[in-house]
């Protein structure tokens, strides 16, 4: 079963992370993971520009290294960048020092290629635990999400997905999308309608 809204007990149990922002402000925080990827990240940029909305891109360092011009375009368009590790590593699958080194490698390549020294971090797969978070929280705000699009899922019913994320969006929601190739087709079917919905409901967007 796919939960489009993170069950409320999860943020209460894992309260050292940012799951959402101020529930009293009619603002939504759009996030895109895994880029920058040509033909996907730039598609998202175009849509955001058309709707005059801002987003935060949690970038994989290797993709920044391969596509520095696209990473810089994200900055030039007024969007934010966060750290998503260099090799899209899952915490717990390797020694802590290896993971932390990978995060640092990502920070350095983003700084080198864009001039941005990131202070937000999102763990790939949303997977992180105590030892990892204790180290990373000394430098980064660890950002998770409360609404997820499942745009990376093969066979996704995009009509259902769009309706679900609209239904669960509320003030302060952090909404997760992906600007990667395997998400492209689903993203093209979900994102335009979702941005139109945000506009029609009077939501503002902001950077994390």
TrEMBL record:
Pfam family, one: Polysacc_deac_1
Domain NodB homology stretches: 26-206
GO CC term (a single one): membrane
GO biological process terms held by the UniProt record: carbohydrate metabolic process
GO MF annotation, one: metal ion binding
Keywords: Hydrolase, Metal-binding
Presence of keyword Transmembrane helix: no
Annotated protein name in UniProt: Peptidoglycan N-acetylglucosamine deacetylase
């Amino acid at each position: 079963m796919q939960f489009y809204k993170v069950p409320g007990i999860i943020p209460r149990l894992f309260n050292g992370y940012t799951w959402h922002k101020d529930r009293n402000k009619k603002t939504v925080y759009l996030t895109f993971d895994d880029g920058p990827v040509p033909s996907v990240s730039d598609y998202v940029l175009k849509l955001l520009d058309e709707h005059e909305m801002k987003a935060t891109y949690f970038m994989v360092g290797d993709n920044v290294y391969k596509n520095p011009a696209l990473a810089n375009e994200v900055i030039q368009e007024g969007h934010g960048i966060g750290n998503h590790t260099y090799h899209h590593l899952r915490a717990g699958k390797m020694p802590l020092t290896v993971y932390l080194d990978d995060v640092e490698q990502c920070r350095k390549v983003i700084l080198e290629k864009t001039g941005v020294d990131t202070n937000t971090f999102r763990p790939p797969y949303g997977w992180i635990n105590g030892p990892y978070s204790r180290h990373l929280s000394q430098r980064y705000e660890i950002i998770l999400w409360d609404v997820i699009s499942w745009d990376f899922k093969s066979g996704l019913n995009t009509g259902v997905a769009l309706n679900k994320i609209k239904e669960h969006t509320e003030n302060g929601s952090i909404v997760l999308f992906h600007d990667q190739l395997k998400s492209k087709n689903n993203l093209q079917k979900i994102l335009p309608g979702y941005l139109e919905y945000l506009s029609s409901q009077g939501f503002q967007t902001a950077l994390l």
